[in-house]
Each structure stands twice: as structure tokens, then as C-alpha cells.
Design a protein that fits this description.
Low-confidence stretches: none
Number of helices: 5
Mean pLDDT: 93
Order of helices and strands: EHEHEHEHH
Oligomer: single chain
Strand content: 15-25%
Helix content: 40-55%
Amino acid sequence: NMNNKILIVLSNYYEAISKNLLDGAINELNTSNNIDYEIMYAPGCYEIPFVIQKNIDKFQGFVALGCIIRGETYHFEIIANECSRKIMDISTQYLKPIGFGILTCDNIEQAMIRSDINKKNKGREAALACTKLL
């Protein structure tokens, strides 16, 4: 169903966390009716808005997935703030839902918990938010 095609844009900088976020999002989309999806990769979270905007006309909605960790990222706040602001700008400018599944954590342990497939998986939440707005 092309009407409800979603693009998942994943930064897989932290592979284990990204895999959990992606699994959570895909599980959610598979349980929703008529939701078809594609996956594209971005080298880091900062590049996710570019990938979304480049593909804005081809999809009805988007799910942004990734992880930014304070202790390992130069200018953590700048990357986290700019990334979320740009995603919000794209969503409101083009009136297309973008589920925000980008973790911003102090350390890798926090990120593992928040991406855990058996717990409160942020990827699943982002996919659910997107489908509810379609």
C-alpha cells in the first residue's frame, strides 16, 4: 500500500543499540495494518534530517532512529538539539509525521536499557507515534 509507506532512517553508529531500535520499530509496523516500509541508513544522527528531506515526497511518514551519547560525542548538546529541531522543522513544513526515536543518553548503559526490545523500546514508540498520525 503506497499510501502508507514509511521510511525508517537509521544511524547505526552504535550497532547493538541501532539493531534494537530497528527491531522495535519493525515489530510495531508489522503489527499495524497496511504499513509498508523501507530502511535507509545515515552515517550519524546529524545526517538523518538530510536523508528524510531528500526522500520527503516518496513516503507518507518517517521514523528517525539513532543514538547520541554525551560522553562520546563532541558538542553533544549541539548535535542533539540541531537534529531534533531540524526533524521538527521538516515535519511541520511538509506536514508529514516523523517518529522521533533518537536516544540522547549519558552513557552506553542507559542507551541499552532504552533500546531494549523487551522493555520500553524507543524505536517501537517512534513507529507507533508515526502510524498514529498517518
